[in-house]
């Protein structure tokens, strides 16, 4: 409901914009990848065969609630554009996975596997960026 003046100089700092985007997703009542899908995505990213892994992730993405799917498609399309400018902004798909993985995808209850979960969260985001056209196409 708050009116923002995007011409304000505070929005010139890309870190402020990125922080606001991450905070938006972090403060949602449920992550963009709903809690009930967390373990399924983790199991999918563990699949050894790359083609099967991509098909499994694609299948899960298609099962998401429509608002989640639509938001995810737009967000990952945007993040893919950022990764395409890696030589300028130093943000590779791996870097974006590290930054956005834990924000977009997390278990409902944190367990002792936080470090392992973080690795999978990063890998899921990275795969979805690198295989965007196969997953969302």
UniProtKB/TrEMBL annotation:
Q: Name one GO biological process term.
A: signal transduction
Q: Which InterPro entries match?
A: Rho-GAP, Rho_GTPase_activation_prot, RhoGAP_dom
GO CC term, one of those recorded: membrane
Major location category of this protein: cytoplasm
- Pfam families cross-referenced by the UniProt entry: RhoGAP
Compartments annotated for it: namely: Cytoplasm; Membrane
**Membrane topology type, per the record?**
Peripheral membrane protein
Key words, A-Z: Cytoplasm, GTPase activation, Membrane
Q: Where is the Rho-GAP domain?
A: 1-136
Gene Ontology terms, MF aspect: GTPase activator activity
Please report the name of this protein according to its UniProt entry: RHG15 protein
The protein's organism comes out as Sakesphorus luctuosus
Q: Which gene encodes it?
A: Arhgap15_1
